[in-house]
Amino acid sequence: QVQLVESGGGLVQAGGSLRLSCAASGSIFSIASMRWYCRAPGKQRELVASINSGGRINYADSVKGRFTISRDNAKNTVYLQMNSLKPEDTAVYYCNARLPWGNDYWGQGTQVTVSS
Questions:
Q1: Chain centroid to CA 47
Q2: Number of neighbouring beta carbons within 10 Å of residue 16
């Protein structure tokens, strides 16, 4: 069983920055593909960024150049550095871990609110 705990959300003005963290329990973190998703009010969940066990990174077009995903396997933690935030980035952000054999685990989510 893997537990994920997100932190770092909050209220920020447009143009500001936040850093989300997701701490994972267990010893499988280093082999997991880690992802950040967001769900804005009235919208479906969207993939924001991903980083696999080999360090390959992908971003949604809407966040390229503004967000940076990274992982620290020694700390079992994945980060999402969010810069130049826009009101449309307002959402609940969820951390996801996917293991090679297909198991998916989710955090509880952390609210990000960007005021204009």
A1: 9
A2: 14
Which tokens hold the place of 58? 């992908």
The whole-angstrom separation of Cα 95 and Cα 45 is 12
| Residue 43: alpha-carbon gap to chain centroid | 17
What pLDDT does 47 receive?
A: 98
Q: Which residues contact 94 (CB under 8 A, 6 or more apart)?
A: 6, 36, 37, 38, 39, 45, 106, 107, 108, 109
**pLDDT reported for residue 63:** 98
Low-confidence ranges of the chain (pLDDT < 70): none
Residue 3 vs residues 21, 68, 69, 84: alpha-carbon distances, Å = 13, 23, 19, 30
